[in-house]
Design brief:
heterodimer; A: alpha/beta; D-Maltodextrin-Binding Protein, domain 2; 2 domains; seven-stranded mixed beta sheet; six-stranded mixed beta sheet; 20 helices; globular; B: 313 residues; mainly alpha; MetI-like fold; 14 helices; 75% helix; 0% strand
Chain lengths: 452, 313
C-alpha cells in the first residue's frame, strides 16, 4: 500500500475513537454544567435513602430549606434503601467521591468505620446553627458518639408500636375514659386484653398481627421485651456475652403464646397483618412508619409503644441520622453548608413527624403543633424508653445481627424450635458474632470496644 | 502462454491457493475478523474475564466493600466456607429448588407443546398464552404471585379452598417460589419443544399410521425419540438456570431470606455476605465455590451425554 493518508481501517478506527472521545466529552460537559450551576452558590450534595411517604416529606423539607437559603444549592439524590445504599456510600467514601452529607441508620454507624469512612461532626458549627447536645435524649446522643467524637446527628427515632382499633376495643370494653387502650402491665393482663378483644372481632380476622415469620420484626420485638426484662447482651468491654437465656426464654415463650393461644394466625404472619388490621383485626405490632398508611385508610385507631408486659416500659428504637461521609478535603463552605442543612432539617422536623417518626430534636416534641398530632402524641414517650441493639459493629437496622439472630426468634415463634433451644441458639450466635472480625477494619467488637 | 484459455490459467491458480495459502488466508481472516470481534472481546474481557480473575484474586483476601486495605489471607476464606452452615443451607435450598423445578418444567413444557401442536383452532392463542408470562420481568412475576399467594385475599387459597400459609411457613415458602417459576418460565421450554415438534416430518407419522401404529405408539416410537436432543437441551438449560435462582425468590419474600431462611438461595447468600456483611473477599470465595459446582454439573452432564451417545452407537 503505497497510498499515503487515510485508508478505510484507519478511518473506521478514527471514527470509533472520535465517538468514544465524544462520549467522554459529553460526560465532561455534564459535570461542567453541574459546576456552572453550583458556581453561584455553595453546593451541598446529599444522599438519602428515603422513598415513599418519607421521601416526599424529606423533599418538601429540602424545598423549604432552599427557599430560605438561596445561597446554598442542595443537590439531593435518593438511593434505594438498605444494602445498596450502604454499599454505594462505603465505596464512595473509600474512593473519595463521597457526597457532602448522607443519612444512615444510627445502629449501623459503629460498623461503618467511623474515622475512616465517616468524618465527625463539628459540634461548634452545629451549635452555630442551633443544634446542641442538650436538645437530644442523652442515651440517643451517646449512641452517636464514638471515640469521643460525634459521628451521627440523629434526625428521628423510629419505634415499634402496638396499633389498636378503637372501634373493636370500644366494643370489648378495653378503652379507658381518655379513649385510649387500658394500661397493661403483665403478660396475663395482656392475654386477658387479647381474649376480650378476640370476642369482639369479626370472624375470619386474627386478633393480632405480629409479623411472626419476619426476621427483622421478630428480632425488634424480641429486643423490646428482652430490654423490658432488663436483659443485657455483652459486658462493657464487649468481650463476654452476658445474654441471659432464662430471660430470653421467657420472652420467646411470651411471643410464641400469641400463636398457640390462637390470637395470631401464622397464615397472616407477614405484611398481611396490616391488611387484617385495616379490615377490622383489633391489634397489630408495626413500625411507626405505618401511621400514614392507617391514617390514610381512615381507620379509627390508636398506637402505643409495645405493652410493658415485663414491668419496665421499653420498645425497640432505631434512628435515622445524618452523617458526613469521608472526604479527604472536608472543610470550607461546603462542609459548613452540610452542617447548616442537617441542623435545619433536624430543627424543622414537624413534617417529618407527620410520617410517624419521633423527632430526635426534643424541643419539637413539646410544641403545640406536635402535640396535636395523633396518634404521635400517644407514643412520643417512647423517646425515653428506647430498647436498642448493642453498640457493636454487627448491629443496626437489617444488619448482620438481625439477619443471623432474627431467624432463630422466628423459629421459636412459629414453633419449629422450642423457646429454650432457641434462646441457647441465640446465645451461641451472639458468641460467634462477638468473636468475628469487622470486615471494615479487621477488629473484633472487643478490640474496637476500647475505642467506642 | 498467450493461447491458453482463461480457465487454464485460473485452474492451477485455484489449486495453488487451495494448497498453500490456507494459513495465509486464515491469517488474513484473523486480521479482518479480529476487528469485527474486537468490540465484543473488549466488553467480554471487561465485564466477564476481568471480574472473574479479580474475583479469584479477591477470594484469597479479606477485602471489604470499601475496596481498600485488603490483605492476602491464603485459603482462609475457603476453609471458613467449608464449615459455614449457612452456606450449605443456602446451597441446599438452591439444589432443592432445582430438583423440583427441572423435572416439572420439562414435563409441563412437553405437555403444553403437545397440546398447542395438536389443537387445530386458534393455535396462535395457545402459543401466546403459554409463552407470554416468560416475557414478564422477574419482579413483576414475583409480585404478582406474592399477591396470588396472599393468605387472606389471595386467589390461590380462595380458588382451591385452602388455608395454606404459602409465604410465611418454611415448608411452603420454597414451594411457592417453585410454582411461580413454573408459571413464569415454562413458556421458554415450551417454545423449544413446539419448534422441535413442528420439525418432525409428517411422513414419519403417515408411514407409521399405514403400518397400523396407534397414537400412543406414534408418540413413544417417533415423537419421544426425535425429541431426545431437545429434552437434553431443555434439562441442561433448566438445571443451569435453576441453580442460579434468585430474583423471584427475593421479590416474593420482600428481599428477605423467607421464613427461617427457607428461601435463602446460594446467590442471595453470596449477595448478603458481600453487600450486607461487606465481606467481599469471603463472598468472592463462596461464589468461586458455586462456580466450580455449576461447572462440575455442566461437565458431568456433557460426559453422561457423550457416554450415552457412544453407547448408543
Amino acid at each position: 500500500m503505497g497510498r499515503p493518508g487515510l485508508n478505510r481501517r484507519q478511518l473506521i478506527t478514527g471514527l470509533g475513537g472520535a465517538a468514544v472521545a465524544g462520549s467522554f466529552g459529553f460526560a465532561a460537559l455534564g459535570s461542567g454544567a453541574d459546576a456552572l450551576a453550583s458556581s453561584a452558590a455553595t453546593r451541598v450534595r446529599y444522599w438519602n435513602l428515603f422513598s415513599g411517604g418519607d421521601g416526599y416529606n424529606m423533599i418538601a423539607m429540602l424545598d423549604v430549606f432552599r427557599k430560605e437559603h438561596p445561597d446554598i444549592d442542595v443537590k439531593d439524590s435518593t438511593l434505594q434503601w438498605g444494602s445498596p445504599f450502604y454499599t454505594k456510600l462505603a465505596m464512595a467514601a473509600a474512593g473519595n467521591r463521597a457526597p457532602d452529607l448522607g443519612v444512615m441508620h444510627l445502629g449501623r454507624v459503629t460498623g461503618f468505620s467511623p474515622g475512616r469512612l465517616l468524618d465527625s461532626w463539628d459540634v461548634g458549627l452545629l451549635a452555630k446553627y442551633g443544634v446542641k447536645e442538650a436538645d437530644f435524649n442523652p442515651a440517643l446522643w451517646k449512641r452517636a458518639v464514638i471515640d469521643g467524637k460525634l459521628y451521627a446527628l440523629p434526625l428521628d427515632i423510629h419505634v415499634q408500636l402496638c396499633f389498636y382499633r378503637k372501634d373493636v376495643l370500644g366494643r370489648a370494653g378495653l378503652l379507658g375514659d381518655d379513649g385510649r387502650i387500658v394500661p397493661v402491665t403483665s403478660p396475663d393482663e395482656w392475654f386477658d386484653v387479647l381474649r376480650k378483644a378476640k370476642k369482639a372481632t369479626k370472624k375470619g380476622l386474627q386478633t393480632i398481627g405480629m409479623w411472626a415469620s419476619d426476621q427483622n420484626f421478630q428480632w425488634w420485638f424480641f429486643v423490646a421485651f428482652y430490654t423490658q426484662l432488663g436483659g443485657t447482651w455483652f459486658d462493657a468491654a464487649n468481650s463476654d456475652v452476658t445474654f441471659d437465656t432464662d430471660k430470653a426464654t421467657q420472652v420467646l415463650e411470651f411471643m410464641r403464646r400469641h400463636i398457640t393461644d390462637g390470637y395470631s394466625d401464622p397464615g397472616f404472619a407477614g405484611g398481611a397483618g396490616a391488611e387484617q388490621f385495616v379490615n377490622g383485626s383489633p391489634f397489630c405490632w408495626e413500625g411507626n412508619w405505618s401511621v400514614p398508611v392507617f391514617s390514610g385508610a381512615k381507620v379509627e385507631y390508636g398506637a402505643t409503644p409495645l405493652p410493658p408486659v415485663f414491668g419496665k416500659p421499653a420498645t425497640h428504637a432505631e434512628s435515622h441520622a445524618f452523617v458526613l461521609p469521608h472526604q479527604s478535603g472536608r472543610g470550607g463552605d461546603t462542609n459548613e453548608g452540610a452542617h447548616r442543612l442537617a441542623a435545619y432539617v433536624v430543627r424543622h422536623a414537624q413534617q417529618w413527624a407527620a410520617g410517624g417518626h419521633i423527632p430526635a430534636y426534643t424541643p419539637t416534641l413539646s410544641t403545640a403543633a406536635y402535640q396535636q398530632l395523633s396518634p404521635q402524641n400517644e407514643y412520643a414517650s417512647a423517646m425515653d424508653h428506647q430498647a436498642t441493639e448493642p453498640k457493636v459493629w454487627f448491629a443496626g437496622s437489617t444488619g448482620i445481627l438481625a439477619q443471623r439472630v432474627g431467624p432463630i426468634v422466628v423459629s421459636s415463634t412459629l414453633g419449629s424450635a422450642k423457646p429454650e433451644a432457641a434462646a441457647r441458639g441465640m446465645k451461641g450466635m451472639l458468641t460467634e458474632l462477638l468473636a468475628s472480625k469487622n470486615p471494615m477494619d479487621g477488629r473484633t467488637a472487643a478490640q474496637a470496644g476500647a475505642a467506642a | 502462454m498467450t493461447t491458453t484459455t482463461p480457465q487454464a490459467v485460473l485452474a492451477p491458480a485455484r489449486a495453488k491457493s487451495a494448497a498453500d495459502s490456507a494459513p495465509a488466508r486464515r491469517k488474513q481472516g484473523l486480521q479482518h475478523g479480529g476487528w469485527f470481534v474486537a468490540p465484543f472481546l473488549v466488553l467480554f474481557a471487561l465485564f466477564v474475564i476481568w471480574p472473574l480473575l479479580r474475583g479469584i484474586y479477591l477470594s484469597f483476601t479479606d477485602a471489604n466493600i470499601s475496596g481498600d486495605g485488603a490483605g492476602f489471607i491464603g485459603l482462609d476464606n475457603y476453609r471458613e466456607a467449608l464449615h459455614d452452615q449457612l452456606m450449605w443451607d443456602a446451597l441446599g435450598h438452591s439444589a432443592y429448588f432445582t430438583l423440583l423445578v427441572v423435572p416439572c418444567i420439562t414435563v409441563l413444557a412437553f405437555l403444553l407443546a403437545m397440546l398447542a401442536h395438536h389443537i387445530e383452532r386458534a393455535q396462535w392463542l395457545w402459543r401466546l398464552c403459554f409463552f407470554i408470562p416468560f416475557l414478564l420481568p422477574s419482579t413483576v412475576a414475583g409480585n404478582l404471585w406474592q399477591w396470588l399467594f396472599n393468605p387472606g385475599s389471595g386467589m390461590v387459597n380462595h380458588v382451591f379452598g385452602l388455608d395454606t400459609p404459602w409465604l410465611t411457613d418454611k415448608s411452603y415458602a420454597m414451594l411457592a417460589v417453585v410454582l411461580t417459576t413454573l408459571w413464569w418460565t415454562v413458556g421458554f421450554s415450551f417454545l423449544l419443544y413446539l419448534a422441535a415438534l413442528q420439525g418432525i416430518p409428517a411422513h414419519l407419522y403417515e408411514a407409521a399410521k399405514l403400518d397400523g401404529a396407534n397414537a400412543w405408539h406414534r408418540m413413544v416410537h417417533i415423537t419421544l425419540p426425535l425429541l431426545r436432543n431437545i429434552t437434553g437441551l431443555v434439562i441442561a438449560l433448566q438445571i443451569l438456570a435453576s441453580l442460579q435462582v434468585f430474583d423471584q425468590a427475593v421479590v416474593m419474600q420482600d428481599f428477605g431470606p423467607g421464613p427461617e431462611g427457607a428461601t435463602r438461595t446460594f446467590v442471595q447468600y453470596t449477595l448478603e455476605e458481600g453487600f450486607t456483611s461487606y465481606r467481599v473477599g469471603y463472598a468472592s470465595a463462596i461464589s468461586i465455590i458455586f462456580f466450580v459446582i455449576i461447572a462440575a454439573v455442566a461437565l458431568a452432564r456433557m460426559w453422561l451425554l457423550r457416554n450415552r451417545e457412544e453407547g448408543g452407537r
